[in-house]
Amino acid sequence: YDDVEEILLEKRVTFQMMEGNQWQNKGTGVLRVIYDDDVNANKVTFTTDKKEDLCNHLIAMESIINLDKSKHFCEWHPIDFATDEPIRRGFRAVFSSVPAAEEFYKSFQQGRTLARDSEISERDMEPRELLVPEVHGRGANDD
């Protein structure tokens, strides 16, 4: 019953996170795209050189990634699970070269295709309270 995880891509990057509408540099580490056969989807993880996990999320069909070739970085805003609560975060990975950034971009897009096939949606990742407001009222059979 072992979860089978296959590393599809592994790159050293400089990682940034959006905090209070500003990009904060979080240092260098390893960015991975991993196939998780438990859910038949790809996930993205980032671990700093100090072994801190800052990014851990599935690539969903709604996931959007932007590639900036002039500065060779990719930027995306997933619902992330690196902390206990699922929360939408902004991530930016700065690569050593344009081809490296393009490789991650392509891998991410392949993850979106897989997510569509597996019906992996962000709607299923958000805390339910946000999606379905409780309705308190009188039913048709109340006196």
**Which structural class do you get from the secondary structure elements?**
alpha+beta
The rounded distance between the terminal residues' Cα atoms is 53 Å
Strand content: 35-45%
Name the shape in a single word.
globular
DSSP strand count: 9
- Helix tally equals 2
Mean pLDDT score: 89
Estimate percent helicity.
10-25%
Rg of Cα set = 18 Å
Strand arrangement across the biggest beta sheet: 4-3-2-1-9-6-5
Unreliable stretches (pLDDT < 50, length at least 5) are 130-134
Report the major sheet: 7 strands, antiparallel
The H/E string reads: EEEEEEEEEHH
Question: Describe it for me?
Answer:
By secondary structure, the protein is of the alpha+beta class. It contains 2 helices and 9 strands; from the N terminus they run E-E-E-E-E-E-E-E-E-H-H. The protein has helices spanning 98-118, 128-131, and strands spanning 5-19, 22-36, 41-48, 53-58, 65-68, 73-76, 79-80, 87-88, 91-94. A 7-stranded antiparallel β-sheet has the order 4-3-2-1-9-6-5, with helices on one face. A two-stranded antiparallel ribbon has the order 7-8. It starts with a strand and ends in a 12-residue tail after the last helix.
Secondary structure elements and pairings:
Blueprint: E1 5-19, E2 22-36, E3 41-48, E4 53-58, E5 65-68, E6 73-76, E7 79-80, E8 87-88, E9 91-94, H1 98-118, H2 128-131
Antiparallel strand pairs: 1-2, 1-9, 2-3, 3-4, 5-6, 6-9, 7-8
